[in-house]
Amino acid sequence: MKKSIYLMAIMTMLIFVCSTTASAADKIGFINLQEIMQNSNAGKKAAEEFKKYYDKETQEIKNAEAELKKLKDELEKQGSLMTQSKKSEKEAAYQKKMRDYQLLVNDTNEELKKRDQEMTQKLMPGIIKIVRSIAEREKYTLVMDVATMPVPYHAKENDFSSKVIEEFNKAK
Fold first, then answer.
1. Nearest one of 21, 35, 42, 29 to 134, comparing CA atoms
2. Which of 33, 137, 140, 145: disulfide with 29, CB 3.0–4.6 Å?
3. 10-45 burial, b for 16+ CB within 10 Å, e for fewer?
4. Each residue's pLDDT tens digit in the chain (172 positions)?
5. Domains of the chain with bracketed CATH
6. Three-state DSSP class for 3?
7. Cβ atoms < 10 Å from Cβ of 117
8. For the whole model, what pTM was predicted?
9. Do 105 and 65 contact (CB within 8 A), yes or no?
């Protein structure tokens, strides 16, 4: 009985060793999706549109900040000269503006995040299609994205991000 258990364990180890040496011949490719999105023509165009929207939204935030600062300075400078009711009124107005400002910042951050995700989702199907075609053509058995998955080392000659960018630019 013990011999058969040992025999099965040895057979299992042999199968495991054989399967790992057979898969050592597999070709693994690497891409950097972040680099592809930043350096492709479509990615650059999307980044430009995003930057325009970002600049417009941050200008609104800066205007709200300036208004808040003006109210705060007014309260600090004239606070001692104001009547208690006038001072309370100004403080309430300042608090309301502060809440509005915080809501504006939060809403803007959410919208920026949403737009970034939408742009990524627009680009991804085309990029994935090209990655697949290159991987099939060059007989890769696995392709890993080094931008999202930390890889301590990868052979640079198996990184075909530049080919993906090239073909993606031609396709668009």
1. 29
2. 140
3. eeeeeeeeeeeeeeeeeeebbbbbebbbebbebbee
4. 444 443 343 444 445 544 544 455 689 999 999 999 999 999 999 999 999 999 999 999 999 999 999 988 888 888 777 788 888 888 888 899 999 999 999 999 999 999 999 999 999 999 999 999 999 999 999 999 999 888 888 888 899 999 999 999 998 6
5. 2-171 (3.30.910.20)
6. helix
7. 10
8. 0.66
9. no
